[in-house]
Amino acid sequence: MKTGLITSNTYQNHNTGNGHPEKIDRVTAVIDNFKKLDNKNIIWKKPTKFDLSFLINTHSANYINQVNNSFPKNGFVFLDGDTVISPGSKDATKDAVGSIISAIDGVQNKEFKNAFCAVRPPGHHAEKERAMGFCIYNNVAVGANYLIEKYKYNKIAIIDFDVHHGNGTQDIFYENKKVLYISTHQYPYYPGSGSEKEKGKFNNILNIPLEAGTTSEEYFNAYENVLIKLKEFKPEFLLFSAGFDAHIDDPLAQLKLSSEDFYKITKRTLEVSKSFCNGNIVSILEGGYDLKALQDSTQRHVDALIEFN
After folding, report:
1. CB 301 within 8 A of CB 283
2. Residue 210 belongs to what domain range?
3. Which of 202, 219, 220, 201 has its CA nearest to residue 210?
4. Which of 270, 263, 268 is nearest to 302 (CA)?
5. CATH code for the domain in which residue 276 is found
6. Are 307 and 267 in contact (CB under 8 A)?
7. What secondary structure does DSSP assign to 250-301, as a single string?
8. pLDDT digits over 268-308, tens only?
9. Which of 45, 55, 271, 283 is exposed most, by the fewest CB atoms within 10 A?
10. Among the options 124, 125, 164, 165, which is catalytic?
């Protein structure tokens, strides 16, 4: 079976203004690269519209209303110090959420074996009641709740290898024993959360804080703890919060991974999870702010998804 690539043109309408790192070019660079590669093992798909109730499982009705009422008729609105929305952001945010729902449906319906969602805005900093760090809705959290509500899964793992801690995802699932959240991230660093002491009510949170300057070798030594935790939990479905800003060339952080390392992260995780996940994997784009590094890293990440049987 092939790998799904879910994306939508509406990401281009989410204008964050000149000089903002979370810019339109990020997804354009990723998509243009995959179009050029023209890999026959990729099935392209657009997000479908989804029932708003699946958003309310993750964010409160009040917050959703607040966001909907914030989209401007023109110009920009700041939801927090660095989270900017414009008139076109409304469709982009909905399609980012719709992408992970379409990806999950595609895997469940055997349309493709696994999937990568190339979307913006990202999601993992968005808390239940709060936009933050370029994120408006928490796309991966909506996906996990969708798996629980629609498909009745009881064990979901979210692996977040973005260089920044996914405080929003942790916040949303801190007391949910059905969801294991694992994060590798630079620490101390934005957003300030993600210490080893934050374990979740059911020991369902694993934070692996890494110092600035962490090399590939040091990273993979630490990543063994991710794989051990996965084997203990035995998830039935695995979601990646796939941020590529731990790359050595990324301007927003100081870890030293290469593009090839994202292939290794993906491959090792898939191999370990194969026996209990049955290949049920969906990945969604989070950070990554050097365009060439993002292009190469997403390509290698998807290569590992395609190769996995």
Report:
1. yes
2. 3-307
3. 219
4. 263
5. 3.40.800.20
6. yes
7. -TT---BB-HHHHHHHHHHHHHHHHHHHTT-EEEEE-----HHHHHHHHHHH
8. 999 999 999 999 999 999 999 999 999 999 999 999 999 99
9. 271
10. 125
Task: Spell out the residues 6+ positions from residue 226 whose beta carbon is closer than 8 angstroms to its own.
Answer: 159, 182, 184, 206, 208, 269
All residues at 6 or more sequence positions from 295 whose CB lies less than 8 Å from its CB, including other chains: 29, 30, 33
Number of domains comprising the chain: 1
Residue type (1 letter), 271: E
Q: Is 125 a catalytic residue?
A: yes
- C-alpha 309/C-alpha 306 separation (Å) is 8
**Whole-model pTM over 0.85:** yes
SS3 110: coil
Tokens of 196: 């080893």
Phi-psi region of 241 (alpha: psi -120 to 50; beta: other; left: phi over 0): beta
pLDDT, residue 80, reads: 95
Give pLDDT tens digits for 106-144.
999 999 999 999 999 999 999 999 999 999 999 999 999
Return the axis-axis angle of helices 216-233 and 259-277, rounded to nearest 10°: 10
The string over 260-296, giving b where at least 16 C-beta atoms fall within 10 Å of a residue's C-beta and e elsewhere, is ebbbbbbbbbbebbeebbebbbbbbbbbbbbbebbbb
3-state helix, strand, coil in the chain (%, to 5): 40, 20, 40
